[in-house]
Design goal:
alpha/beta, Rossmann fold, 9-stranded mixed β-sheet, 26 helices, elongated, disordered C terminus
């Protein structure tokens, strides 16, 4: 019987509601008259004029409803806007009825003089009530049957009673396919406690989670705060673990903004949720002003950072976007993805896919001469620490020679803004990868100092989801049954999501005047051991029972703790709260180079031009010695350029003897 009734409700169309409305409009004057005079006997003298009045109402009221849009709604899915349309239509009918009665029907003597003048008011109100009730009854009946249909529902609690939580609660109440029954909200706002949202009570603060789980037999918790920082997600997840229930979440704000997820999706908590931070507030107007209508080039466009740069840049409608990469498959993939973007389809942005090696000066010269980019984002680099330790020649040729080639050509072909993606491993480097990125930073600064151009570097730590990221490695080890390999129980790293890092890189590009190193606020460093344990737990396994964690010791080139600033950099907070700026600290490196070259600083001959000349000669020597395989001489050049560099062997010795200095870790 319930199934048949549900089928009937689904099959109701607006023509059926029109028939129902005609019946209600015809009956309502009689109901109003009986209510007015208290009995059928006293109403009998008015039956004839009431019949005329009813027929007139049948003529114009359905027309008012139609013009109001009442017959354009699917009422079993009626929402707030549909209810407002219904109230507007029936309210307009009431006003028109009163107007016609007082200024047309009575003056034209269409009704007997004794006809109650209050009846139009009463009749209009009754029509309004009956028409609204008929729709809402259908809506409520269908919703109640949907909630009661199908398989048994899982009782859950929703963490967060804000706008997002409200939307999740409504979705769960109205969508039976989700098979969830929300028992209540948990929210730390005391003003919300005891209130109802979509019929779901706000039970109290998060501290009551375990008590409410027991009281309501809850099986799962849904975190409905897409902008929540990772610390909040971690706290809720740990509370769920203590209470013995599963925890899920809705996508984070970056997933929603980038279109990679829908708000209605409910999924298991991922490690990215635990590590994410609050929403980063940026100034999109400044970014748009820089990129709209500009010719923009991205090197390493097929990589994890480069491809995300392209995705976010395309939204600012550059006139041209030049995708430069050495790997044809990755460039082919990002180009195809971007071709689906509305900006490209509408012809606002021209895409250019360029397969080129940034170390090839002749090739890169032809690329810049042909495309004439105004803004360059340099994301191409060798970044794997362990691999680069044994490949000094390629690390120098790609990270140093490639960067210098691109910087020099950018200055020659009038590039206005140049942004190089650097790494926290460039600070007090212990690896070949890190020290070559530091030399690249100095190359960008030297060019800015020499040319006066807005050439800057942006430095940040590990990005989740990038190629070579530790998370996929840990997941592979877990999937194979372990052990999970961790270098050191006290090792920490800074983490940031790719979209967040790129968003701040674009913002930093708008802040640069020339020569700055911008450092992204990475928050607090995360202990790798804690990260691994979270990944194991989120995989549904237990450490010590299902698999083991094994410590391997720091590999060559690795540090126990990464750093964001040199001691001498004295970072300042920029106009953006999440971006720090270090200005002109290349002078320290140049002064040391000059002293080694026998030129005293602040005396004739130590002009900026002379300083730059000495620096460039040293970089030339590094490139040549590395290219011909003279490793010892190349390392000597590196130490002259970056005296803070300690080789992997030195770091390993200091770690083993417990003498490593944790210099300026977070400033």
């Amino acid at each position: 019987m319930t199934k048949k009734l549900r089928t009937v409700l689904i099959g109701l169309r607006n023509r059926n509601y029109l028939v129902l409305d005609l019946i209600l409009i015809a009956l309502s004057p009689w109901i109003a008259l009986v209510l007015r005079v208290d009995s059928f006997r006293e109403a009998s003298p008015f039956f004839h004029p009431l019949l005329i009045y009813s027929l007139l109402g049948l003529g114009w009221k359905p027309l008012v409803f139609y013009l109001s849009g009442i017959y354009e709604r699917y009422w079993i899915y009626a929402s707030t806007d549909a209810i407002l349309v219904l109230l507007a239509g029936t309210g307009a009918s009431l006003v028109i009825e009163v107007f016609l009665a007082l200024f047309v029907f009575f003056p034209a003597q269409l009704l007997v003089p004794q006809f109650p003048r209050s009846l139009p008011f009463m009749n209009g109100a009754i029509v309004m009530a009956l028409v609204c009730t008929s729709r809402l009854a259908v809506r409520l009946a269908y919703e109640r049957m949907r909630r009661g249909a199908g398989t048994a529902k899982t009782p859950i609690l929703i963490v967060g009673a804000g706008v997002s939580g409200s939307m999740v609660g409504r979705e769960l109440r109205t969508n039976p396919d989700l098979h969830y029954e929300p028992m209540g909200f948990l929210d730390d706002n005391p003003q919300k406690e005891g209130l109802f949202i979509h019929g779901i009570p706000v039970l109290g603060p998060l501290a009551k989670l375990e008590a409410m789980v027991k009281a309501y037999g809850v099986k799962e918790i849904i975190i409905a705060i897409p902008a929540a920082p990772g610390s909040v997600v971690r706290a809720v997840d740990h509370a769920c673990k203590r209470a013995g229930v599963k925890s899920k979440t809705i996508p984070g704000i970056f997933e929603l903004l980038n279109g990679t997820a829908r708000f209605s999706q409910i999924r298991d908590i991922q490690i990215e949720d635990i590590l994410r931070r609050g929403v980063v507030q940026t100034d999109p107007i400044r970014v748009t002003r820089l990129l709209t209508g500009a010719r923009v080039m991205v090197t390493g466009a097929g990589g994890s950072i480069g491809s995300e740069l392209c995705r976010q840049i395309i939204g600012s409608r550059p006139s041209d976007l030049i995708l430069v990469g050495h790997g044809e498959n990755s460039i082919f993939g990002i180009a195809n993805e971007l071709k689906k973007h509305a900006m490209v389809e509408d012809g606002d942005t021209r895409l250019h896919s360029v397969i080129a090696d940034i170390r090839d000066e002749d090739r890169m010269e032809r690329v810049l001469k042909h495309h004439r980019p105004q803004v360059v984002f340099h994301a191409a680099a060798h970044k794997h620490v362990g691999l680069m330790e044994g490949n000094l020649q390629d690390a120098v040729s790609n990270n140093v020679l490639g960067t210098r080639t691109l910087v020099d050509l950018s200055a020659e072909f009038d590039v206005q803004h140049f942004v190089m993606i650097s790494s926290d491993k460039a600070v007090n480097p212990s690896s070949v990868m890190g020290v070559t990125k530091r030399v690249a930073e100095l190359i960008v600064q030297e060019s800015a100092m020499r040319t006066g151009r807005s050439f800057v570097s942006v430095r940040f730590g590990n990005v989740l989801g990038s190629r070579g990221s530790v998370i996929p490695i840990f997941k592979e080890q877990i999937a194979s049954g372990g052990p999970v390999l961790v270098t050191h129980p006290r090792a920490t790293r800074f983490f940031m999501t790719i979209p967040e890092a790129v968003q701040l890189v674009l913002q930093a590009a708008t802040l640069g005047k020339g020569g700055e190193v911008f450092v992204l606020d990475m928050g607090q460093p995360i202990r790798i051991l804690d990260l691994v344990r979270d990944v194991i737990r989120l995989s549904g396994l237990k450490e010590g029972e299902d698999l083991e964690i094994k410590f391997t010791g720091l590999t060559r080139g690795e540090k126990l703790h990464e750093e964001l600033f040199y001691d001498f950099e004295e970072p300042e907070q920029s106009d953006h709260g999440k971006i720090f700026v270090c200005r002109n600290h290349i002078q320290r490196s140049l002064e040391k180079l000059l002293s080694r070259a026998g030129i005293a600083a602040n005396v004739p001959g130590s002009t900026p031009k002379a300083e730059c000349s000495v620096f460039r000669r040293e970089v030339d020597r590094l490139i040549v010695t590395a290219t011909v395989g003279e490793k010892d001489e190349a390392l000597a050049c590196i130490r002259r350029i970056v005296p803070q560099y300690m080789s992997g062997e030195q770091v390993g010795l200091e770690e083993r003897t417990g003498e490593m200095s944790l210099r300026g870790q977070t400033r």
